[in-house]
Amino acid sequence: MSDEYEDMDGDEDISALEDNSDSLGEETDVIVVAVDDPLAPDTPVYRLRLSYSNETFLAAYKGEELGAGSWVMVPTRYGRDLAQIIGPIQHRNSPGLGEISRIERPASKDDLEKSQYNRKQEKDAFRICKEKIETHRLEMKLVSVHYLLEEPKILFFFTAENRVDFRELVKDLVSIFKTRIELRQIGVRDESRVVGGLGVCGRAYCCHAVSDKLKPVSIKMAKDQNLSLNSMKISGPCGRLLCCLAYEHNFYNEQRRLIPPEGCKISYDDAIWKVVEVNVVVGTVKLSAEDSRQVTLPAARFEKIEGKWQVKAG
């Protein structure tokens, strides 16, 4: 009945919007289970999701075809447990897919019934753990609780601004539940990924519904997209910069290579003009002349020749 601890998101600068932690943000799968037997080229590979942490990973299965939404038994980094099929992988040889686990078998009726029973037990465990946290006056927030299906272990996910000495808490939980207790500290971005919700756009959180891979997001990304640096407008409910800033950043970088930057001086219409505004989305460039004239041209009319920006003939 030992306890375990793992920081899934690393130390964070709470005072900053930027979150450069990449322990769960790399473009590789977060669940790695070593296997000895080589994978046959024709073995179907599926993407799976853990419902309690919203993590996804790849696993192969040699048996009958598994449909999206079905449940399977599979080894995970937490232990043997149920995972849900998202769908088959079409291009299994694509780079960056990471390790591929092995599905043991489809979930049985007993597995699903036991899982439903565990969901009810988790609600009680959450309440009890929260009460014990308050009793010990620990500065931590309980996020979720999960009973593993095939192992005598309960997972408790929590957030905290600093490291927490929860040894007395673990002792209490072990004495109550008579099983192995595992506490895992996660970051505020991970909390949003696990719990889910609606963003300022009115859609589900990107980290919960689009991708569980948390990419680092920087202030520079917001600047490159000419966004207001008002923290209320560019940060999500987690208090960190919006994930979508990273999704759109590559587009802005690619388009800006084709457009003269702000401040650039260009000879046009027998005058010297200065680029005062670039609208990457609309595809326009606003120029201002020394005599206060202004003109807006399509971005497609600009080209760079021998290191100098020029305007093509209209």
TrEMBL record:
Domain PSP1 C-terminal: 101-186
Protein name: Tpl protein
An annotated GO cellular component: cytoplasm
Pfam families referenced in this protein's UniProt entry, alphabetically: PSP1 (PF04468)
Positions of region (Disordered): 1-22
